[in-house]
Here is the input.
Amino acid sequence: MKKKDKIILKDVNIETIAAEGKSLGHVDGKVIFVPGSVPGDVVDVRLCKKRKGYLEGVIVNMIKPSPVRVKPFCPHFGICGGCVWQSIPYEMQLKSKQQQVVDQLTRIGHLDIPEIMPILPSLKTTEFRNKLDFTFSKKRWILSGEDPDGLSDTERLGLGFHVKGMFDKVLDIKTCSLQREPSNKIRLFVKDYAISHGLEFFDLREQTGFLRNLVIRTSSGGETMVIVSFAREDEQARHGLLDAVAEKFPEVTSIYYYINGKANDSTDGLECFHYSGSRYIYESMENIKFRIGPKSFFQTNSGQACRLYDTVRSFCELKGDEVLYDLYTGTGTIALFLSRGVKKVVGIEYVEEAIADAKINAGENNIENASFFAGDMKDILNAGFINENGHPDVIVLDPPRAGIHPDVAKTILEAEPARIVYVSCNPATQARDLEVLSQKYRVDKIRPVDMFPQTAHVENVAALSLRK
Here is the structure.
């Protein structure tokens, strides 16, 4: 549609929740997707997209709000790209996520699935994240009702999240309910300090400025790590800011920094310099401690991660004498969590730094039956590797959103482990992979797990057994 076209659809009844955080209704027999709507809403919608099979639009007038609609808890709701389901009751969110798993496994995977176990709700629906990444911007997102010409240069500065779909636009965040304090206090202090000391916020388009990113990591035990990315080295300015953070927040146990002169904000391949405090913070699951550095991957919802891994353990049905392969092991969290219930565990991961963390965590927890290998999964996992490290009785898969490579699926089918437990953050690609594995395996158990309340994202765990 042309931008000048403004077609308003009147009195659209929103019927149900759809994929990607949108809800849907029908107009003249066609499905229309409307972000920000709740089942039961009656709304006027401005048409944005018109496709052969569906329409998309945005709410321009709320005629009648749904009786189940919940008041959003965040002042940035509707502008910030996160937490798009705040207006939907949590029980309704869970039902939608469960149905999403059913739909994708049956429609994409064409699978004959057992009755799905009830979704595992998150213990916390706010302050559940252990890591947030904020971006500095010289030209923040201008809010509706603000006069751009009336703003001073200081008032245009922002420290917050990228506006959805806009790489160079940052929404200045006053408060975020996703991470416990001192997260908000640290972010606001850093912004105020930078302004009062004349530290330039980065301009991504112009590639100018000094301050680029602020990452805050927290642990369940109360430790906090602060990581600041600077666009260039300025020792005096860097020392001033980091020392101020350390002095103001004695609860900050670890401070790091990057010097990032790249065109984008990615810190891949850059050295992260330790500035002060401990080099690591620690997270615990049952009787295992995991050390977390500035580059370590760890499940973002710490409390729910333990319940996810407990589900995986249950689905593995371990007797104690198995050889278990943990593919896409990351920093070895699942492998180490399961290690004391098996004879041997083997973890494989592409990222070398992650494997280094896995080995260290194994050593610090006195786990001697775990081996870890770094490299491309499709290249490492082959018949020779299996002959050398032992035939797997159980394979745990926890791949990235893209799912597993066809060569990996082929090797697994040839190895024929008795059981496979597949953990997925993307049930659509999981459904595709399970269809391939169904050549030799049947799906015995399925349980969705909610790791990210207030969003459409859902984790899913599937247990497979070798057909006899």
Remarks:
- The chain has three domains: 8-69, 93-124+301-466, 131-285.
- Residues 93-124+301-466 form a domain with the Rossmann fold fold (CATH 3.40.50.150).
